[in-house]
Amino acid sequence: MKLRIAIWAAAGFLVAIGWTAYFIERNKDLAIEPIVSTLIRVSCPISIFGSHHPVSQYAALAANVATYAVVGLAIEALRLSIQTLFLTFRFLSAD
Fold first, then answer.
1. Domain residues of the chain, as ranges?
2. pTM, two decimal places
3. Is the Cβ–Cβ distance between 73 and 17 less than 8 Å?
């Protein structure tokens, strides 16, 4: 379970790095399209806060890693409980 949560955190790191690279390379004169704005708010939740207050790239990176780790923890706990419930139900129905 620890490895899976670490994978979730690594995914958050890669998403934040990807958005950082995108915003470094894109043309600053063009406005951000609505689809890009929606995608960044879904995949990097600190950007919601960052649209009103300045957030450094390092803080956004750390917040995204932490957010993905918490989401991974919740999903893995849910997966484990569903798996346990399924195995218990299967064991009880075998009788």
1. 2-93
2. 0.80
3. no
